[in-house]
Amino acid sequence: MLTKKIGIVGCGNMARGILSGVISCKLVNPKSIFVYDSARKASGAFKSKFGVQAAPDARSVFQRTDVVLLAVKPQNLSDALKGLRESKVRARWLITILAGVPRSKVSLFLPKTVRVVRAMPNLGATVGASYTALCGSDRRAVALAGKIFEACGTVTFVSESKMDLVTVLGGSGPAYFFLLMEILAEQGIKCGLSKKVAETLAVQTAWGAAMLASVSRSASPSMLRRAVTSKGGTTEAAVRCMETMGIRKIFGEAIRRGLKRARQLGRRS
Ligand SMILES: NC(=O)c1ccc[n+]([C@@H]2O[C@H](COP(=O)([O-])OP(=O)(O)OC[C@H]3O[C@@H](n4cnc5c(N)ncnc54)[C@H](OP(=O)(O)O)[C@@H]3O)[C@@H](O)[C@H]2O)c1
User: Fold this and answer.
1) What are 103-120's pLDDT values in tens digits?
2) So where are the chain's domains?
3) Within 10 A of 192 (CB to CB), how many other CB atoms are there?
4) pLDDT tens-digit profile of 21-50?
5) How far apart are the CA of 75 and the centre of ligand 1, in A?
């Protein structure tokens, strides 16, 4: 169990997922966690659900804790950290999960004594299955962030120049797989399945494929796909149609647009 006190500013979807992981792994005592959200209702909900303490403002989170997780939207960065630059705070580390915002920009709002780690987890954290990329220059801070995110799934260390890319591929990644499930279910319903059967089929098929890819260490997703694509079969007909109609081009363009948006968010925050 960590002996550090942890703060959270911004009690939304991602903070909930990360907190679920940290608390279910018993990494931190809930009483050592202080949370703040500009909407009282949101921090109150965290207090009732997780047994953490609600703080009256962000400054008091920084004054009562050692490490703070910043989980507001990029456009709320300056508002969330306003007035902290000149404050005396206890916190020595801040972990930001803001899409597109570099560490150097976050540091501008903080006292010089606070070291910043940038993390990009995803919603898988809610079920202990996040993929999180981390970067930072302070070894102790990165190690601490590593422990927190290991409670939520798998952790990788990357250079900051790769953070926007892992944001678009991994941070946003669950949405792409939800979209594929949505499309499979829609097609099932359109062709005569009930909603319940179509949705269960889509989710269970995605789950099975992800499990298989995850346990088959020596076989890449591409090898697994080729293995289930028998010559002249139904899978081959369907996959060939997707390839001919440009599925790879669509994904390439989608990632390019996501990257562009990450850079815009970084500039505008
Ligand atoms: N969602 C994802 O899948 C995902 C994945 C990886 C990283 N991220 C990053 O994680 C961050 C949070 O995303 P999210 O989806 O969890 O957003 P969210 O659900 O909207 O949560 C953000 C919370 O912060 C609150 N807030 C706004 N201004 C604040 C302030 N000045 N002080 C304190 N709290 C404030 C919001 O309140 P209001 O709702 O009242 O504004 C909201 O409760 C984003 O920066 C995003 O880029 C998200």
Assistant:
1) 999 999 999 999 999 999
2) 6-167, 173-266
3) 8
4) 999 999 999 999 999 999 999 999 999 999
5) 9
245 C-alpha to center of ligand 1: Å? Answer: 36
Distance CA 263, CA 100 (A): 6
Task: Specify the pLDDT at position 1.
Answer: 82
Superfamily of domain 173-266, CATH level 4: ProC C-terminal domain-like (1.10.3730.10)
Q: Please work out whether the CB of residue 163 comes within 6 Å of at least one atom of ligand 1.
A: no
Q: Any idea what DSSP says for residue 65? A: -
Helix axis angle, 221-228 to 195-215, nearest 10°: 120
**Biggest distance spanned by C-alpha atoms of the chain:** 69
* pLDDT attached to residue 208: 97
Q: Which of 73, 109, 165, 167 to mutate to test the pocket of ligand 1 (most atoms within 8 A of CB)?
A: 73
Q: What is the CATH number of domain 6-167?
A: 3.40.50.720
pTM across the whole model: 0.94
Which amino acid residue places its CA nearest to atom 19 of ligand 1? 12
Question: How far apart are the C-alpha atoms of 101 and 46, rounded to whole Å?
Answer: 26
